[in-house]
């Protein structure tokens, strides 16, 4: 993967009022010196030129936007800059077909927003250093020009930060989505099975609270995701009473994101280039399961269930009128029980940790797929515990599905994301009786235990909405690993100390 692109901060070193064939303008969150930073570059044809007002905004006294009158008025604070600007902008008056695009921020009604104006004529008031443009305010999607958008976390000096136009607030954009996200989560909660309703509602409330809070504005998707304490509410079915709790479970850390988008609205392929680089930072999940079983389960009728939980909307970002990106985390728990006989409480804990130097590029255009490197996640196992002997086979897994979906110039485009199936845990137990004592002890009862753990990480891109009639057009496995432990438990203290070797 290539290094990050130059976002053009150096081009802000001096005011620039000259018309050009392409220009770049910076967007940022407007808070702090370390935040999300994006560079939008727009190119024009032979009879069109372009300029961004934020390149010389500090030389202006006033900006007056009158879109209904098709008039834009700029007043300068000194004669020298005014004269130089007039000399350059007079180009538009020489030919009737000539126009230039001015990217304008600072209009009274939307001071925080950049909007394109197509300028067709300029008149001058030399006495007051004022330029009056005849022009039309446009939507970004109305311009057939080619755009590229590059975004990443960035730190920039205070003097550069002071000159950046304050027009991109990702937390503000997410707040606009908060109510929709809450309603979607509540709808899922209502549709959930009775045993997971309480947990689903809790996740919906957590999502709403997270969206309403001010947060770190670095371009880092925060992955502090709660997990319901009850996965399966204790119930009786086919002679077996079974329940699953997850104590102090959840995910923490974040994912740094940077990316590149090329937009060509005049072509058939409106978004010929779009990729996102994702880099985990301190990402881990802690899973502490308690499986409570009692009774007998016929081996010919295994108990299997996959339980989806409401999606957790995560803080996204948007450049108004140009692009919106919204990450969502989906979560599922899978449970399978086979030939159970006995009564016990099984406790097992696993931490899933992702290394910080892992990287994945998600290409979100057809014909290109993803590439990954340096993925080496690991599992940290806690010794399992049983409080009494039991026969049975138990399988459980968690599936974390991070999707990033976008719309560009009001066009919905494919989504992409990561899937992390971790941990995958298998437990096979067999209660035994040994006359001579189990495990070199005086205890006669023992439990033979086979335990396995696994990780499966993948990346994909798809058409449609995630989880709703989506159509994958590429899918790749990034990392997979399985481990097994063999040993015995004995009931003298039921501390759950595993005896044996890893293989």
Automatic annotation (TrEMBL):
Domain annotation DUF7223: ranges: 227-483
Residues of the DUF7029 domain: 45-147
Coiled-coil region list: 174-210
Record's compositionally biased regions (Basic and acidic residues): 1-17
Record key words, sorted: Coiled coil
Pfam families cross-referenced by the UniProt entry: DUF7029, DUF7223
Region of interest: Disordered: 1-21
InterPro entries: DUF7029, DUF7223
Descriptive protein name: Uncharacterized protein
Organism, as annotated: Glarea lozoyensis (strain ATCC 74030 / MF5533)
